[in-house]
């Protein structure tokens, strides 16, 4: 008689409103995992995926969400729990005692804090020999003024702990800029003066030329079980932000930098998935660390399209039986594959065509005709894939497009 295979544990995905959540649903569902997705709104594209076993709308508040997860655990029995956003991970980490029915596939509070707080990340990077851009954390406006005379402009401003800073800024009626470019000391100090009543200031970081280079890992017991890397081709906004088009890069490139990334993750005692993001200057062959992302990242669909299905690999590692081997399982993947996030990619094109002066990084130069032709020609590129659209599961893309058009 043929031995029966053990049933796959169900998986609960908190946050199927983005391409990240959709990629997790697809990766697990393709391998036969029963996936239960929780969405914030009925417009969530993940609700339309054919790989979703059951979709639910999220409760209105934190307590309701926790109760919803407890109810699912009681109904499903043992299950894996995926969380995507930093806010949700913080919420769940604060109530782990209520999640005993789950195998948790997100970092614990200590590890998450070590990458959310950029000061802690850069300190670990220094120990691991990872290059970082020159960074100043002023405690007072006078300190910022003194540092301004020694900085190489332009500079980029970002908050060391953006989640905490966002709360403080909202209370003070101030906007949170994820990144802010300043091109001289006068512009820098004028921007920083608004934070004087708070007594809190963003990090000041010298600008690094080049493009975004991401190195991605699934870590377990200090080993990299799977590795992938890509370069950012386009971003929204154009000067830096969300990746709107990226390309997979072969593992025979940036090998020395990847070893430093591994050293950094070991210094952080990292477990699970992580993205180590750099700004890479191909002219000087130099890289500078931007951040470590301790959760599933925005360009996850590219890795899955290329052949490294991090959600499924993380699930397999989390559900391995006691005596099962946990040796690294590096997946071969296709280099040179591209992936586009169509709605922000279109917003990027419109910004470059209609408002090029609004691009904050004045060092960037674009050809309007070249950008338009490239945008159209990429629809015919055989190596192009998409964050949301796939021929095998097209409904999430059309659901998202329909709701975008309705809002518009």
TrEMBL record:
Pfam families: ATPgrasp_Ter (PF15632). Residues 122-319 form the ATP-grasp domain. Keywords: ATP-binding, Ligase, Nucleotide-binding. InterPro entries: ATP-grasp, ATP_grasp_subdomain_1. PROSITE patterns: ATP_GRASP. The keyword Cell wall biogenesis/degradation does not apply. It comes from the Bacteria. One of its GO terms (molecular function) is ATP binding. This is Putative ATP-grasp superfamily ATP-dependent carboligase.
